[in-house]
Amino acid sequence: AVKAGKRGTFRFYDRQMSEGLAERRQLEGDLRRAIERGELELHYQPSVDLKTGEIAGFEALARWRHPVRGNVPPSLFISIAEECGLIHPIGEWSLTEACRQAATWPGQLKIAVNLSPVQFSGPDLVGMVRGVLERTGLPAHRLELEITEQMLLDSGEATLAILRDLKALGLQVAMDDFGTGYSSLNYLRSFPFDRIKVDRSFVTGLGSGAQNTAIVRAVIDIARVLGMRTTAEGIETADQHRVLALLGCDEVQGYLFSRPVPAEEARALIGRWCAEDRRAKTLAA
Ligand code: C2E
Ligand code: MG
Ligand code: MG
Ligand code: MG
Q1: What are the residues facing 46 on neighbouring strands?
Q2: Counting ligands in written order, which one lies closest to the CA of residue 178?
Q3: CA distances in angstroms from 148 to 111, 118, 168, 195, listed in the order given
Q4: CA nearest 115: which of 185, 47, 162, 72?
Q5: What is the pLDDT of residues 240-258, one digit of tens each?
Q6: CA Rg, the chain, in Å?
Q7: pLDDT band at residue 17, thresholds of 50, 70 and 90?
Q8: Does ipTM surpass 0.90 in this model?
Q9: Which residue from 108, 116, 177 is spatially nearest to 143, judged by alpha carbons?
């Protein structure tokens, strides 16, 4: 009976697994056609300068509206794309699209684009980025590439060399989701990041518990000493905003200011924001 039970249990997991795999394989096929069919789109979420209250730039976030399933979350389709290599064409598409948009924005607004660790093992990432900057005409200093700590897990010399070559193009490099990895502090020694993005999980706890505030304060202090700028992710409340201003965080991003929105809305947001009384959004003032 024990044996049968075990086998039954195994079969149960096995079936779930193959259903999951079948679903992923189907999505993979759909994803292959999604770019050509224009189902992929970028949304843009503003990042706000805490001192001036002005929009400092936007982060591009990929969206997939599947014709049958509706919106597929990036956490799912990006991981499928990473598994099957589609992240390379998708990564180039999103970078091109984001830079093309940003090149039409007024002033010095910057654009942040997420890079997948898999893109570092693909063919000529640096050449791809350089080509996109040339084709879109976006000045390199207005582009910021976001990478997660996951990428640095096996940060061999090869990865670090690519990062250095990317920076040599004149763009900025940010460490995304800081604090969620196993060795966050260690990575700060391996590469001169321009920015640290404090993960939303720490921001959520701000104000509720001294530990969270102490951790965020420490991260902001370390960043300052290392000459890196800080962005706090996922600000949803005015309380979190206030605490981050007190702690001296440079930029804030979150639903409190805006959700990620389509390109036209981002453009409208830029216009509206500039027209409004800036002081209303300036806590430091
Ligand atoms: P991320 O780069 O850390 O992006 C921040 C995520 O937090 C986004 O989720 C954003 O919509 C969400 N967010 C922003 N503000 C708030 C808030 O106040 N509250 C809450 N609850 N969430 C907030 P999204 O768009 O679902 O993207 C998830 C992840 O997928 C991104 O995390 C990024 O790692 C990845 N991703 C998205 N687009 C791309 C892409 O074009 N290329 C690559 N390689 N990865 C991407
Ligand atoms: Mg990001
Ligand atoms: Mg993040
Ligand atoms: Mg994230």
Answers
A1: 58
A2: 3
A3: 17, 11, 20, 12
A4: 162
A5: 999 999 999 999 999 999 9
A6: 21
A7: low
A8: yes
A9: 108
Ligand 1: list residues with CB < 6 Å: 45, 61-62, 73-75, 78, 94, 114-116, 146, 176-177, 233-236, 254-255, 260
Its pTM stands at 0.91
Distance 148 CA to ligand 2 centre (A): 8
Atom of ligand 1 nearest to the CA of 148: 34
Q: What pLDDT does 148 receive?
A: 87
- Are the CB atoms for 230 and 223 separated by under 8 Å? yes
Name the residue among 170, 173, 162 with its Cα closest to residue 133.
170
End-to-end CA, the chain:
73
d(CA 265, CA 268): 5
Share of the chain above pLDDT 90, in %: 71
Residue nearest to atom 25 of ligand 1 (CA): 61
In 3D, which of 87, 200, 193, 83 has the Cα closest to residue 145? 193
Query: Strands 40-49 and 251-252: what pairing?
Result: antiparallel
Which H or E run contains 166?
helix 157-168
The token pair at 202 is 């720490």
